[in-house]
Amino acid sequence: MELSPSAHVDTFCRDRLPAFPLWPQLHYDLPELTYPDRLNCAQYLLDDAVERWGADRPCLLTPTDRWTYGDLLLRANQMARVLTEDFGLRPGNRVLLRGPNNPWLVAAWFGVLKAGGVAVTTMPMLRAAELTQLHDISRPVVALCDHRYVDELDAADTPGLTVLVYGGDDLARRCEAKDGAFTNVVTAADDVALIAFTSGTTGRPKATLHFHRDVLANADTFSRHVLKPRQDDVFTGTPPLAFTFGLGGLVVFPLHVGAATLLLEQASPEQLAALVAEHGVTVLITAPTAYRAMLAAGVEDRLAGLRRCVSAGEALPAQVWEDFRDATGLRIIDGIGATEMLHVFISAADDAIRPGATGKPVPGYRAMVVDEAGDPVPDGEPGLLAVTGPTGCRYLDDPRQTTYVRNGWNITGDTYIRDRDGYFWYVARSDDMIVSSGYNIAGPEVEKALVTHPYVLECGVVGAPDDKRGMVVKAYVVLREGVAPDELTAKELQHHVKQTIAPYKYPRAVEFVAELPRTSNGKLQRVALRERAAKS
Asked: Which residues are bridge partners to 206 per DSSP?
């Protein structure tokens, strides 16, 4: 296997790709997956879109604003010029992006790619310690940060990082000083375009490296063949753009076909339904939790304009699918994706849907269920989900590459059953990851946050089943002597976790115990805690 000559002057990412023998199999079974050797995905998604459909076409909407494709192209070009001319950004440099879903974040993402940089989009809720960790791994040279989210970044230990704030006057003034013309860097199709982080079960995030061709491959597989968007669609949804689920569903897929997307910084299920009605949204992308909550709120009448609903991030219960179909007439498109794979690789739509099943491999992907040795298990028996396709896992300088990729297959960490008709049915996560309302949360990371509180002697954190969220983070806590095991103590520990790591990771359930189950050599038995949580 050989890579194309890189356009990156800064070879940080290429130098830290896994060795070729550790890569998953990559195959391009569809004709649309044949890309030129030189490819900048920003050119295809934005510059070429303006050429194809015109600058005046609606592109990025918010509850109060409207950007056309021409507006986005102008801002992205100005952003690229600010980065290269004012801050000396070189192709291959990493740029950290921090902010909620809004047009400026999208313009920043495109500006980085146009300049040949590598986008490192982060969750706006991350705290200083988490940002320090992400900085240590990806080594960005510049950060573009929403003015409302600067404090935690300032508090992080990020030596050498230049922070440029947007949403105030600074970046807007710099952009206005540029004329909006920019010649895109002609990157290689296999130059790294973005670094996406996913929680590791050890608490240390894993950085996944994705190429320019990968960004388009997800649009040419799941979006083109399953979602089937139209140019007159208006997309919206709740996943942050730092999640590859959100990046694909709210930016790449709509722009790939010339559609518009309504970007929401925050919305309750009731607000989401109201905005769907107000803005004529036709494609909704969110997690099962939100679909369930909209039904509970009785706002299904506001969803009458929808023609497509997508669910991912966690398993979609058959009952939720049935209830939503009965209330709205809409068939939710379920799917499983992974940050390592960039987006959804098993799904089904329309008459091919079987409620409760995730679906079949998306065109362009292959999947099977295997045992620990990597051998296929008979249909109807549970095993590990293995998948290959045009995208795949490439961790940045991380020994966990050999755990995720085995015998050329991506082993996702999910236990599945395949039936004799080729449908894949979710059983459970097969590692210590907790998937709650579509968020991946590492139990050990929450444990590390909890034990820094003076009340806590030791703790164990697992996922507990929950009707609304699929799972919730549950902490089993051994308190230090003299601390009362009461509701006030639980609330204090929850508040501490919210202040230490991203708030969505806090334990919604806290149970005080005298001791934790351990093996003979002292290792925490999370399996025993998960069984206890399931019974409770």
From this structure: 198
Six-digit token pair at 203? 């608490």
Tokens of 216: 């388009």
Helix (H, G, I), strand (E, B) or coil at 85: helix
Helix, strand or coil, per DSSP, at residue 482: coil
pLDDT in tens, 228-244: 999 999 999 999 999 99
Cα(345)–Cα(288) distance, integer angstroms: 18
Token pair recorded at residue 486 = 């009461």
Whether residue 24 contacts residue 392, with contact meaning beta carbons closer than 8 Å, is answered with: yes
Distances (CA, A) of 384 to 291, 377, 387, 413, 421: 28, 9, 10, 7, 18
The Cβ of residue 406 has, within 10 Å, a number of other Cβ atoms equal to 17
- Which SS3 state, helix, strand or coil, does residue 430 take? coil
User: Tokens 């095991």 sit at which residue?
Assistant: 485
d(CA 377, CA 380): 8
Amino acid at 453: H
Q: Which two structure tokens, joined as six digits, stand for 360?
A: 């079949």
Confidence (pTM): 0.89
Per DSSP bridges, beta strands 94-98 and 142-146 are parallel
- Domains of the chain as residue ranges with CATH: 20-39+211-431 (3.40.50.12780), 433-535 (3.30.300.30)
- 154 exposed, middle or buried (CB, 10 Å; 0-12, 13-18, 19+)? exposed
> Which of 4-25 are b and which e, b meaning 16 or more Cβ less than 10 Å from the residue's Cβ?
bebbbebebbbebbbeeebbbe
pLDDT tens-place string over residues 377-424: 999 998 999 999 999 999 999 999 999 999 999 999 998 999 999 999
Cα–Cα distance for residue pair 260/58, rounded to 1 Å: 6
